[in-house]
Amino acid sequence: MDIIKDFLLQLTFMVIPIFIYFTFITERIKSGKNRNVIMSILWGISIFLCMSFPVSIGQNAHLDLRIIPLLFGTLYGGFWPGVFLTALIILFRLYFGISIGFYNTILVLLLSLPVILYFQKSFANSKKDKRGKIAVGLSFYYCFIGLTIFGILREFSIDYLKVQIIHLIFVLVVTWFFTMLNEMIREIHQLRSEVQDSEKLRVISELTSVFAHEIRNPMQVTRGFLQLLNDPDLPNEKKEYIQISIEELDRANGIINDFLSFGKPSIYNNEKIEVGYQLERVINIIQSYTINYKIEIKADILYNCWTYANPQKLNQSLINILKNAIESMPNGGIVWITCTSTDDEYIKIMIKDQGIGMTKKEIDRLGYPFYSLKEKGTGLGMMVSFQIIHSFKGKIKVNSEKGIGTEFIILLPQIT
Ligand code: ADP
Ligand code: MG
User: Fold this and answer.
1) Which atom of ligand 1 is nearest to the CA of 382?
2) Same domain, yes or no, for 124 and 256?
3) What is the C-alpha separation between 16 and 155, in angstroms, rounded?
4) What's the CA-to-centroid distance between 409 and ligand 1, angstroms?
5) Which atom from ligand 1 is nearest to the alpha carbon of 380?
6) Nearest CA to ligand 1 atom 16
7) Same structural domain, 100 and 52
8) In the listed set 169, 195, 221, which residue is the last one of a domain according to the structure?
């Protein structure tokens, strides 16, 4: 019975960091770096507790679940949390004295950490089920290495083997369970923040469609009178003031236009359209925009791909993306546009530039209202484009590398 009690206690040490993280930290701490630091400390405490209250089997055998905090800390946190937690285990083990067990611990960790780190990237890019499999695989590897090294350093005994097998099964089950738990809570949180975002956007779109029209009319009137004031006899200085006023009015008008196009998708009727033909039109429109930039557009379009969408809106979202691609290359370059069809019934439009590129952080911020790094940017283009593509049940993916270029991949559901 004591063994079960001890195992349950070990389980509690796993629950605490996960619970604290999702209850107190995800909402309050937005910076990924700070979260990582706090999470490493929490997993560190969990390791400390696991090792302080191990499951005692017989006289000499102590088992604990330290691999799980180490595994989760490294898989979710990356290199430094992994190194930190490993060092913590070694230091804490040192405190119990240098014995064969100590060397055993060090050897196992040195053989496990690189493997965990090696799989960290593919873990980060995987979906829930695959993550579970990777985590369980790594736990198995850790236990297996531990068992082998122990056998080499000491001698195998049937009793010890039995204990190890119980331990192995327990660790695997617990790893699977906690990976799933972790992933499930994450999904719920993500869903919640998506709902909050879409609520914000709904409010913006309603407010803007009401105000935009009202503001635009007086602005047009002002612009007209400013043009009338622009008398040839005026001193140059005053002419310049008028010119600036008109430019600024135009800029404000541009912002309002962007906002208006962000109206509710339901107003616009969708129809069956040919994506290749629309792309061709978009390229024609955008050609005029490229004159000031030394831009070459290379297109490779597969025709006869149909989707269900509103052509004006689709064109607008493509133009926004193309405009950004062109603006990202102030010294000129090539923009590639391709349109193909995928095996899983999507039309894939790729827009690729050789521009300034974006960091991962910048990509994550794409699509938020007013996020712009340009002096005269509105930070609305991407928001509108993302919204439009999603309203057609499409997807947008962005790959970018700072200084190399950016690739937008738009997937639209194909119909026949
Ligand atoms: P704006 O173009 O008015 O700045 P957008 O919403 O169109 O607003 O774009 C937001 C920001 O995203 C831009 O300011 C730019 O920093 C970044 N961005 C978008 N597309 C690209 C691209 N192809 N290359 C580099 N940066 C880009
Ligand atoms: Mg833009």
Assistant:
1) 6
2) no
3) 36
4) 15
5) 6
6) 373
7) yes
8) 195
